[in-house]
Amino acid sequence: MTKEQWGALQETLCKTVGENNYKTWIAPLTYRGSQRGVAQFNAPTNFFGTYVSQNYGDLLLSHIAGMDPSVRKLSFEVANAAATPAQPGTGAPSAQPAARSETAAPAANREDLPGAPLDSRFTFDSFVVGKPNELAHAAARRVAEGGPVTFNPLFLYGGVGLGKTHLMHAIAWELRARNPELVVLYLSAEQFMYRFVQSLRERKMMDFKEMFRSVDVLMVDDVQFIAGKDSTQEEFFHTFNALVDQNKQIIISADRAPDEIKDLENRIRSRLQSGLVVDLHPTDYELRLGILQTKAEMYRAHYPGLHIEDGVLEFLAHRISTNVRVLEGALTRLFAFASLVGKPINMDLVHDSLSDVLRASERKISIEEIQRKVAEHYNIRLSDIVGPKRVRTFARPRQVAMYLCKQLTSRSLPEIGRRFGGRDHTTVMHGVRRIEELRQQDGQIDEDIEMLRRALEA
Ligand code: ADP
Ligand code: MG
């Protein structure tokens, strides 16, 4: 990699790690050149080099190798030997030969470990805590403190996109920051299997066993993957037991509870249950809104001119499913569109740029479901909600139902009208407006609607 190429990477790196991290950890590095596949950097101190190599090493390497595939390793050396504690206050700094950062050595070993890179965005700082994930978060925090091993393994489970991988990476970052010596290995169950099969094929099982038994903390993501894969399960079981015997922390994730994973050997299942099992519940409205607000705040730093109109984030939190990945994707797209067309982020833009996402999540709440729930709530019959009677006891709940249909589905007014006994779209519009007014004036209606919305979204 040339110095120019390194220069060109700076902006991307700054965006990826955030400005603060960039200024603190990346900007002070000086790139010296590459030799035999090693990109060499000067770092201000030994500690600095170690920290960067452990916390940003994977990320730097992946970006650098993207530019120059011949680079396979990074080294961080201290140019100014006087700055290293080993030689306090000797001679003219620039005359000293470069002192190789000793602590860079374990990092080099670590590259031989079969772990997956950690995503620099997945930290505790960026994890938004709410009711559905507070237990999982607390357990992850506890493990990340690296104290005596109290529950082994920590088993995190939950549906797709609820933050399992994020929490695991956060634990790894935190452990490494607190104790750079600790060998923390994170990988997916799929990678575990791949390594296992490869070692079998290359007749390197001894190396494989030794390598896995030498780590201090083992994290295996998406362990449901090994269900039904008998010899991989077997090997996993032995690795697991060996580490538990040495009192090493193990952290496992899966998309469901241990007893719901089919084709898993019973002894493994009971091993997995022997520590602390915590689940991430589907997100609720408050958590989704919290996540959107946090992410929007981050985006605003990148797109300073962009304005988000009131109600947009609330709408997305209402409408988009419990999967946080989908939620994030929607927000990313909104910001990208808004910056392309130079418009503020408002409901028009939401409908223009997210129609597919909204359509996909619409299945969740149907008009009929809303009508049923509302009827139940007001203790009237479904047929009274859609029927012709205009007495207040039916008309008001009917308007509430129309209002909720407008809010929680993406059906048009004419469509909603049709589904309410073939009413005209102006009738629906009138109903929706009326409820909007009433929500301001009448606390009871406001409360009813809030309750209904929760019940429907649960
Ligand atoms: P899983 O591994 O459970 O499928 P991930 O950990 O990959 O889910 O999370 C999917 C995305 O959602 C990631 O980008 C992650 O950062 C984000 N995410 C999930 N939960 C939260 C949360 N509570 N706060 C902030 N971001 C979250
Ligand atoms: Mg995951």
| Largest sheet report | 5 strands, parallel
- What order do the strands of the largest sheet run in, or round the barrel if closed? 6-7-8-5-9
DSSP strand tally: 9
**Structure classification:** alpha/beta
Could you state the CATH homologous superfamily of the largest domain? P-loop containing nucleotide triphosphate hydrolases
- The CATH topology assignment of the largest domain is Rossmann fold
* Span between termini: 53 Å
Which CATH architecture of the largest domain is right?
A: 3-Layer(aba) Sandwich
Tell me what you see in this structure.
The strands form 2 sheets. The protein has a 5-stranded parallel sheet, with helices on both faces. Strands 1-2-3-4 form a 4-stranded mixed sheet. The chain is an alpha/beta fold. Mean pLDDT is 86; it is low at 82-111. Strand 1 (30-35) and strand 2 (38-43) form a beta hairpin. The chain contains 22 helices and 9 strands. It folds into 4 domains: 3-102, 2-Layer Sandwich (GMP Synthetase, Chain A, domain 3); 131-279, 3-Layer(aba) Sandwich (Rossmann fold), CATH 3.40.50.300; 285-360, Helicase, Ruva Protein, domain 3 (Orthogonal Bundle), CATH 1.10.8; 367-457, DnaA protein, C-terminal DNA-binding domain (Chromosomal Replication Initiator Protein Dnaa, Chain: A, Orthogonal Bundle), CATH 1.10.1750. Helix 21 packs across helix 22 (443-457). Helices cover 56% and strands 10% of the residues. The structure holds adenosine-5'-diphosphate (ADP) and magnesium ion. Adenosine-5'-diphosphate is lined by residues 122, 126-128, 133, 158, 160-166, 291, 324-325, 328. Adenosine-5'-diphosphate (ADP) binds next to helix 7 and helix 14.
